[in-house]
Design goal:
Elements (H helix, E strand, L loop, with lengths): L1 H19 L14 E4 L4 E3 L8 E5 L5 H8 L2 H11 L3 E6 L11 H11 L5 E4 L1
Parallel strand pairs: 3-4, 4-5
Antiparallel strand pairs: 1-2, 1-5
Length: 125
């Protein structure tokens, strides 16, 4: 039951994010493609995961909600379970340099290791 609540929470956050976006994407249509580099220097495009379930998690390790969910091991547990089942989990950080939540690739990799995060990739936007 706990995992269902976590999936519901993540789904709700994604729905709210999508609803607020300026690009109108209709259910059943292909999502807009994007290409970003991960914290290890590898490039990822959304289109390379066509046909797979993809979780897009906007993450800021200084956000109180992120601290709460990573501190309780909720997110890491969900990441491990879903990626083992073939789900692609892309953590994305859109914090600009000099702003709260921005980290260098090395800092991101260290923070993921400290927290036990297991996304498919951590993308730097």
């Amino acid at each position: 039951m706990k995992i269902l609540k976590q999936i519901f929470l993540i789904s709700s956050i994604l729905i709210l994010t999508i609803a607020q976006s300026q690009a109108a994407v209709k259910v059943g249509e292909q999502a807009p493609d994007f290409t970003l580099t991960d914290s290890n220097g590898q490039t990822h495009s959304l289109s390379e995961y066509t046909g797979k379930y993809v979780v897009l998690e906007w993450v800021n390790y200084e956000c109180p909600f992120v601290i709460k969910h990573y501190g309780s091991d909720n997110m890491q547990t969900l990441q491990k379970q879903l990626t083992q089942d073939g789900v692609v989990w892309l953590s994305i950080n859109s914090s600009a340099e000099g702003k709260q939540g921005h980290f260098s690739p090395a800092e991101v990799n260290q923070k993921m290791q400290e927290r036990g995060a297991k996304p498919t990739a951590y993308l730097l936007d």
